[in-house]
Amino acid sequence: MKTLLSFGHGYSARALTPLLLAQGWTVIGTTRSDEKAEALRAEGVEPVIFGAPLDTALARASHVLISAGPDVTGDPVLNAYLPMLETHLGSKAWVGYLSTTGVYGDHDGGWVDEDTPLTPTTRRGRLRVEAEAAWQDLAARTGAPLHIFRLAGIYGPGRGPFEKVRNGSARRVVKPGQVFSRIYVDDIAQVLMASIARPDPGAIYNLCDDDPAPPQDVIGHAAELLGLPLPPEVDFEAAEMSPMARSFYAESKRVRNDRIKADLGVTLRFPDYRSGLANLLQRDRDSGIVQT
Fold first, then answer.
1. Which whole number is the average pLDDT over 149-164?
2. Pick from 212, 195, 201, 203: which is nearest to 112 by CA?
3. Which of 17, 90, 108, 171 has the fewest CB within 10 Å, making it most exposed?
C-alpha cells in the first residue's frame, strides 16, 4: 500500500490528501496540537504530533512530503529527525520539499525560471535557500529521491480576497512596477500528483500560474465579481501594513512555469487569477456563503 508521510501537514498538503485517499493511499500527517490532530483525523489522515517518535511512520511511508518552513534555527524537520531521516529516506520512492519562489529575490518585474541564480533579498528567502541546500545535501548523502517545488503566492478556499472586499477592509495597494506570481492550491495538488506519478530525483519545479499580475488588479477584479465598488487605491509608501506584509513588496518578479508543463504534462486548472477567483466565488455560492 502506498503511504505518504507529510511533515507539517498544512494548507497545500491538505489539498493533496483527498486525491491520494481516492486512490487508496494512506496519509500520515504531522501537526503540533491535539485540536489540529482531530481535524486531520476527520479528513482521513492519521495524525502524529510533531516531535513524537516517527520511526514507525517513516518506515511505513513509501513517499515523504515536507511542508514545514525553516526559521532562524534551521529546518525544523531536519532538526528534529535527522538521524531517522538518514536511516530511512534513501529507500523512499519519492520525496518532495515545498519551498518558495522567494529564493530568487528581486528582479524588478523580470522573468525567472528554475535555473535563475538564487539571490534572495528577504530573511525568509535566505532561510529557504539554506533549507533547500540542507535537504539537497541529505539527498546526496542518502540517495533520497528529492524533488523541490518552489511555490508562488498561494490562494484558494479560505485564502481569497473576497472576505476583505465584502467587509470593506480591502485596499488596492499600489507600488509602480510591482507584480506577483500566484498559484491556486488545487494546482499545487495536481502538480504534486504528477510528480509522484513521474519521479525525477533532483528535479526542481516552479509552481505558479501563467499570469503574474499587480496585486491591486486582483483586488479590483474580486470587487467586480462581487458587484461592489472598487476598494480605494493606497500608495505603497503611505499604506499602513505589517512588517511581514510590507516585506512581500520588497521583491517583484514574473515566474516561469514551463517545466511543470513540459516535464510533468500538467495543464493548470486555474491558469490566471480570473479563473481562480471565479472558482472561489462559485464555491462560496455552492456553500451558501453568498446568495446566487
1. 95
2. 212
3. 108
